[in-house]
Amino acid sequence: MNQPIVMSDMERRELLWKRVHRVLPFVSLGLLLALWVYVSQGENARFPSPGATWDRFVLIMRHPIKGLTIFGHVWASLQRVCIALVFAWLLGIAFGILTGWYRKSDSLLTPLFTAFRSVPPLAWIPLITIWFGLGEFPKILLVFIGAIPAIVVNTHAGMRFVQKIYLDVGTMFNANARQKLFKIAIPSALDAIFAGIRTSTSAAWMVVLAAEMLGGKSGVGFLIIRGMDSLDMSLVLLSMIFIGLVGALLAVVTQLTELLLCPWTRKQSN
Length: 270
Known about the structure:
The chain is mainly α.
């Protein structure tokens, strides 16, 4: 006969905490929904109720704004973010490798970049508007400016702090400078690079919303301004909900991509 499995007190506590951790996200969502219902009650409540927000969602799906439903406006914002991120990642990773690996480049370029990233992205709005107007390119450029500092800083740090023992092993096997860079330094800095990718993605999503508030006829930021101008708080709240959902989705996608390309991070986190 099979003997029953006897668990120690520590194992029982760990199992209990695992179950609690699985339930806590649902508890937090339930508390948030309860708070939402509470603050939207009353005749003079200025906060839209869940029912009013749902009705606004149905309305925008039936009667699109500027020819786009809420999903169309989200997609318009995502397109701007994706275009800006591609250029930010390509140029940011290259710049971070250049300044993190070569000391002369670091001494020459890092002070200029530090001054550049000290300026908030929104401070560029007047100049960008004067130079390029209010079309698509200014919005993408503003998102690029907001996204590139994080990827540069993290890539630079990853390249600067490559463990010396890895380079010493490469030297023992007669690796040349190019091999040390591409086969040792860059792979060992992937954790830091992906940390920059995650941070730059969230930064880009925030900046694009501010950029769309300046002008345009599409995007979630445009919907917020549209709702504010028409005192349509249900539209504003609906846009905010989709902003949070898309931001969370982007975080999950970048994390899964990191686990796929850098599977050792999963072991380090366990």
